Amino acid sequence: xxxxxxxxxxxxxxxxxxxxxxxxxxxxxxxxxxxxxxxxxxxxxxxxxxxxxxxxxxxxxxxxxxxxxxxxxxxxxxxxxxxxxxxxxxxxxxxxxxxxxxxxxxxxxxxxxxxxxxxxxxxxxxxxxxxxxxxxxxxxxxxxxxxxxxxxxxxxxxxxxxxxxxxxxxxxxxxxxxxxxxxxxxxxxxxxxxxxxxxxxxxxxxxxxxxxxxxxxxxxxxxxxxxxxxxxxxxxxxxxxxxxxxxxxxxxxxxxxxxxxx
Length: 262
What we know:
Elements: H1 2-27, E1 36-40, H2 44-50, H3 55-75, E2 80-87, H4 95-114, E3 119-123, H5 131-142, E4 151-158, H6 160-177, H7 182-188, H8 191-195, E5 208-211, E6 230-233, H9 243-255
Parallel strand pairs: 1-2, 1-5, 2-4, 3-4, 5-6
Helix pairs in contact: 1-9, 2-3, 3-4, 4-5
């Protein structure tokens, strides 16, 4: 009897979800969609653990979900997306897991580039990656620079504190080559000067940041850029993230009154 009830529940859900998804899509205010969405793709390992699989299976499932997300963004004319694929903290995991994760990321970025649908940029401290991986990732993204589609920032070896520190170092180095002293730099320094040296320089800050897996924290993602962002936390692990979840995030964003710190 219990098995029969579960089967009926699955049938009902399969029938109802498409109707709900269509209605939800119709109710999203397309005049109020974000222009830049940042996504923390969290929960791959827990998804795999719940399935009784190794962590790399979860990472691979999460990688496959990325194409769906980008197609949803295209559907709603969202021009900029930033995906956090690998944090600097992730590199402290076991050598085997890091190696497998880098392999999956390397392959995923290459496959996205081959599609020639999205302009891709690398965001992060690439020097923390193996030289051969750096080279392949850089080459893959370079092949997409003339594409006019959605701009996709792939954050690899990324940490918010590291980004700000690197920006300050870059700024100081630039002015030092011009013969300026630290005191001179300090006197002219503004937030805009630092922003010009961030990994995301030239791109708009994210309007909406989505994090999956139920965790309600940024974890260092776009610390500088997200000062005025709206946040949406989703319970689903990243491999289970559905179009319905994305639509709910867009709906929540459109319903909020953005104050930009005022």
